[in-house]
Amino acid sequence: MRIRLIIQSGPDAGHEVVVDPSRPVMIGRAREVGLPLNDPRISKSHCLVAHDGQGFTVTDQGSSNGTWVNGVRVAKGPIRPGDILQIGTTDIQVKGDLVPTTAPATQPAAGDDLIGKTLGGYRILDRIAEGARGVVYRAEHSMMKRPGAVKVLSQAFLTDKKAVTRFLREARAGAALNHPHLVQVLDAGEDQGHHFLVMELVDGEPLQAIIDREGPLPLQRALHLTLQIATALDFAASQGLVHRDLRPANVLITRGGDAKVIDLGTALSLTTGGGQSLITTSGLPMHEANYVAPEILFGEKEIDKRADLYSLGITLYHMLTRKLPFAAGNAREFFESVKAEKYLSPRAHNQAIPEEVCQIIVKLMAKDRDERYPDAMAFLRDALGFYGRNWGTDTVPEAVLAIKGADEWAGARSGTRYESRVAQGVQAKMVPSKLPEVPGHVVSKVYRPAKVVGGDYYDVMELPGGKYVLVVLDAGMRGVSGAMVMVMARSVLQSSLELDLAPATALLHLDRSVRKDLPAGIEILATYAVLDTETGKVTYACAGDLPPILWRTSTGEACPLPGAGPAIGAESFERPDEMEVALDPGDRLVLYSDGAVRVQDTRKRPFGADGLAKALSRVGDVPLEGALERLTQAVEHHRGPAPAGDDLTLLGLERQRE
């Protein structure tokens, strides 16, 4: 597996380089290094990115300002897709290839000479993935400037009629399907002797890579992805297509945590036929053969949509166990195991899997297709019933909720989707789309609402005497309940404004007003600050562990301020401490919601206020709006591909230079 180093900030932003396990890359200011950067704060030979046989590492080469990975200075340490490498003022994102490279390092894959050329109107920028039969490039339409992924059939297969037929079939099948969980084919053709197809460019990685890296996935996450994949299979079947090669390597997971099914080269048309399968089991690796339905493995002529449900069952089995059910020593043992349905229950590998989920998997994996679910909808009814009882409908994928009757399958009350839309409408009206102008200061915000209302509220409000209130609040609840808490909190804060209450008193007033209406265990996190525009002094109070972040222009460093205390609604809540900080010209203050600091990476490490402060220190002296966007990127990079369940809100204040 190769990695890509993508420069995100600094003078060379937008450039990238691919690092192969056999070819280390030196990064530095010197022209002769593998990745030269025009950054005066880095050394001529700053750090080395290499593969040590276990994984990729970065080694500092005795640089003056150090090498940092995700905000931690390292002499030598591992780097993985999703990490952020910081040297000088440059941030470099680490990304993995879409699939492992199959070409030997000494023999460049077919098509390397295409970089910089144009195929079908798309200018080829760089190679992002390799497969057995072709190469995938990142590209951009020359006129429309639209990004795309261009898949080019290897020259070695141009005389192979079956390979060309499969390639063209993928193009036709993909172009006919438009679904949020299917990678869409945008164009196809032949140009300069190359067969190519253009797909949407997905910022993500294969599901298989995530399983290999993280091991068995949490139950909710695995079922969430399975529900999305099932809607894609159902849509394909409604268009008369069966995928026939569904497996984790053919499912991309976006940075937002959504699944997108790829590789329709083996798809079979149920309406026009299409002849015998283009899948051949001779020479097929055993780990891939595990996903192929028995009727395909044993050469039956009649193939239908239930073949994909079998593959879906194996995929879910693998997500929850990191094992394959048929792990025989040779092909003969493998086929005998499939015929006899001889495999261990998923619970034998992972005792945390509920018996109800095991039964769903076993039904999907039945050797006799008549014993499987008849279609994806039947599977969704059972799976949604379990999902809804355990996690409710707030996080059910949108494509699933769009199916008629899905609310009822998930056990939701009638009107849940309507109520959710109402909550989103309330939230849209609550949060200001435009902030007021503050004399002598700049205010800016970033607001990323979750798919389901997460309960964040922010505002900037004017007081008499040249003062302004800045507030960020996290309601602690989601959906309709979260929106209602926002309404209550906003009403109380408006009354505090009219009474000209000090920050600590305003939060005490909020607690006394809403406590009786909060469900048991629900707490509100809030930061309330008052700015005096004449003096640049900010008086603030915190309910919860969300202290403001202060960035000093004199030092270029940021740190969380003191003042954290119990949250509103907590048994231990009392009038919080009131703190004061003076802003010098150029200084910045950042208020934020829980969703900006509680996000965890794949190793369950929270970003935290310290992570936010380190990220703000690395941003440097850029306009406030850009600085907040960079902070948002840092949070999202730390989170990785896992979906975020909370709103993300950042509210920034900067005292203008004289």
Could you describe the 3D structure shown?
This protein has 658 residues and is of the alpha+beta class. The protein has a six-stranded antiparallel beta sheet. It has a six-stranded antiparallel beta sheet with strand order 12-13-14-15-17-16, with helices on one face. The model is unreliable at 98-111, 269-283 and 413-418 (pLDDT under 50).
What distance lies between the first and last C-alpha atoms, to the nearest angstrom?
A: 52 Å
Whole-number mean pLDDT: 82
% residues in beta strands = 15-25%
Walk across the major sheet and give the strand order. Answer: 2-1-11-10-7-8
How many E-type strands? 32
- Cα shape: globular
Helix content percent band: 25-40%
Task: Describe this structure in a few short sentences.
Mean pLDDT is 82; it is low at 98-111, 269-283 and 413-418.
SSE topology sketch:
Elements: E1 3-7, E2 16-19, E3 25-28, E4 35-36, E5 47-51, E6 56-60, E7 67-69, E8 72-74, E9 76-78, E10 84-87, E11 90-96, E12 118-119, E13 122-130, E14 134-141, E15 147-153, H1 161-175, E16 185-191, E17 194-199, E18 204-206, H2 207-214, H3 219-238, E19 241-242, E20 251-254, E21 259-261, E22 268-269, H4 286-289, H5 294-297, H6 306-321, H7 331-340, H8 346-349, H9 355-364, H10 376-391, H11 398-401, H12 406-409, H13 416-430, E23 441-448, E24 456-463, E25 467-474, H14 479-499, H15 503-514, E26 525-532, E27 537-543, E28 549-552, E29 557-560, E30 579-582, E31 588-592, H16 608-619, H17 624-639, E32 648-655
Parallel strand pairs: 3-4
Antiparallel strand pairs: 1-2, 1-11, 3-5, 5-6, 6-9, 7-8, 7-10, 10-11, 12-13, 13-14, 14-15, 15-17, 16-17, 18-20, 19-22, 20-21, 23-32, 24-25, 25-26, 26-27, 27-30, 28-29, 28-31, 31-32
Helix pairs in contact: 3-6, 3-10, 6-9, 9-10, 13-14, 14-15, 16-17
